[in-house]
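To: structure subgroup
Subject: Chain for Friday's discussion

All,

I'm putting the inputs and outputs inline so they're searchable in the archive.
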Amino acid sequence: MSTNQTASYFVEDFSEAELSILSRYFTNNDKPVFCLINLPEVVKGALYARYSRTTKSTRRLFLDEFVNRKEIAVNAMSRSMSAIEAGERWSQNPSDSFAYIAEELKLEGLDPIFSLEHAESLYRRVFDEYGDDSVSQLGGVHIVFEQASNIVINEIEWGRLGAYLEQSTRYLDYSARLDDNRYRYYRPDDVMSSEYAQTYEKGMDKLFDYYIKMLDSAIKYFEATNPRNSFEGDDRAYRTTIRAKAFDTVRPMLPAGIISNVGFFGSAQAAANMLRRLLSSELSEARVLGQMALDALRHPDAAPAFFNQIDDAKKGIPWLAYFNKTRTNTQYLVSSLQSQYGIEEASIASPAQNEVSLTWADSDNEQKVCAGILYEHGSSNMAMSDCMVLAERIGNYNQGLLIRNYCGDRSSFNAQQGNRRWKPGRAFELASYNFDMVIDFGIMRDWKRHRLLTALWGELDTSLGWTISPFILDMELSEFYQEAMDLSSELYASLQRDYPKSAQYVVCLAYRMKFNININARALMFMLELRTSQQGHPSYRTVAQQMHSLIHSRDPAIAKSMGYVDYSQYSLERAGAEKRLSAKQSQAD
């Protein structure tokens, strides 16, 4: 094969017909970096997997093994000759077919090469040779879940290797009803087919009534405490800021059964793992949504071949049974061990503040970070054990100096220059912390979205008390708020015995739950700086500030590197963001 040498990269030679074909599926034909376009996901995955075992370039491999297959070539050539002659010519010289295939692509409305049947057969051939994991990691899928409860969204978003975007309870008006005039909450089949159906609906409707009354009061309160003439921005920014603050303040009154939409994007492998979690869930809602997602992915224009094994009798069903059996056996053993060896549990039934404790952190975290820096930037003959010795020998002052230089001039939250998105290197990942929290469900939903941590949590109930915003106290509506919390607790108690999983739907977001995270210092820097920014919810801003204070007492040099952790207090958190948005819209107009 002849090539054209240009600088450090060569440009591969292709015939005019080959270039015509390639232009349909590749963003360029003369550079060593390109994107695949107009191809089914299973073909992309199969191409990548096959590419790992050949010396051919991607484009040449694509032409030779994915385009110039006998059934495709003979079909294209048969427009100009008999099928017998076409088969003979292709066998003698396969490259002759490219001109005919290129013409076929120009004529056909649908792609004659990568029909569903052809894509499936390609995937199956490559799957048989390379295995499911190699291929399914390289195909991507988008899935949209609508009308999912906030309980099941936790299960959808459990996987690390996926991207999720959901409707925010902070900016959504839940007083708006569905088209059938019902409030926006999930109605579990098991409860709705039982004697508790009326109790459930009446109770949930009343919680929404409480929310609406409180929302109206909150909007008036924030307008009174932040009058229009004190707000430096246009009317749109003012109205949006006030409403966002009101939504933010009263959302803890909403029950966990509120429904939202969430979009998923990830590899086919990540999607398959998510489907297995949903299909093996103890919640009926999760199983139903999981089956709907599987059905959608099996649409001819989605990526059906990636998901053939999810529920097949040989591999898929035993996999789901494994999850169920493991969970059941573990729950039984934990219950038994708690009864036999457990400590007396404290009951918390009154309003409480969110709590954070640092369970453990290595005593040599800063030394480890410095050792990592020395390992990255030091001489090539130093092992990590040597770097640990040197990091200890240089002393606290030089350790701090090393960490400051490693972070560079990323600045802090109140500076005009710098950026919190500028992160130090991976040496920070050598320091780790474990935080145990008792926080309200609303905060937990935000915390668990951070992917680079290990998060553990239990089920939602009403045993750990609830939180209340100081703004509600200032509105002198705490008794009204407590009525909603009491109703939530009563509903939970009525359902918990017979429907322990579905009882979670009636628990208000203000109720606290246990939540544990294990996280390295680099991921922690991103999380704390983001969650203490001005736009952050006041409750989780306070929790993040407490976490940072605990780190500072243990590892001051690491804590000081997190310059964008903001301890300021704000009355209207969204004001700055809304003003900037209005300015951009004005410029666009």
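Points worth raising on Friday:
The CA atoms of residues 317 and 581 lie 50 Å apart.
The first strand starts at residue 3 and ends at 6.

D.
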